[in-house]
Description:
Layout: E1 7-11, H1 16-27, E2 32-37, H2 40-50, E3 53-56, H3 62-76, E4 81-84, H4 103-131, E5 134-139, H5 152-172, E6 177-182, H6 209-222, E7 226-227, H7 232-242, H8 244-259
Helix pairs in contact: 1-6, 3-4, 4-5, 7-8
Amino acid sequence: MKIAGKVCVVTGGASGIGKALASRFVAEGASAVVIADLNGDAVSAVASEIGAQSFAVDVRDESAIAAMVAAVESEHGQIDLFCSNAGIIGVDGEPWWATGADNALWQRMWEIHVMSHVYAARACLPSMIARGDGYFLNTASAAGLLAQIGSAPYSVTKHAAVSFAESLSITHGDDGIKVSCLCPQAVDTAMTAGTEGGGVAGVDGMLSADAVADAVVSGLDAESFLILPHPEVEDYRQNKARSYDRWLGGMRKLRRLFTDPVGQ
Length: 264
């Protein structure tokens, strides 16, 4: 897919990866770029800066996503690419249990990392299927292919995000619907602020949001399902598939490096 001449929507577009994607789409010659974010003032400012259109939207609200999609389709005729990108981070509580995060965080991550993708697909698919063409870029994480040490709800919901993207591709690929799933490791955004080198996710280095946007444009051009800005992730994914037990042992060792360095 070439971005030039396309109508693109990006959620979580006020900062980080979302802002970088929207900026790059404008530079690539998209016919319209629409950015949505919970922070209405911030997304409006970004839209003015880059020459985009903005909506203040809580992606946990299906009716708000549906209303935005309807408004964009009414004004621009169609949505060619919907980038479901909004995300949050949170850590497990103490003691360091996989179940340590409270229920509210689990629920919030489920709604933002999974259901927002579902809501976007429900809103966009009817018109996309009717014309036999449409593209979804769902931002997940390398954690959705591997694991996020220190945040079980992040890891679990990002796995679900990858699975939903797979389901979209399997179910609607024959309808002309294309799907890509963005799975970076550490990216220099507000989500990694305050961590040294991106923490455990930064073991292979931290990329800029602009570098991720470069990878996305290349991945969309190739229509690749997995877009991996950190190429090492594919090796880790293959290692996990070859020997689950060995991979789990390696992940436990990595956890010890970041949580109990004295006890090595």
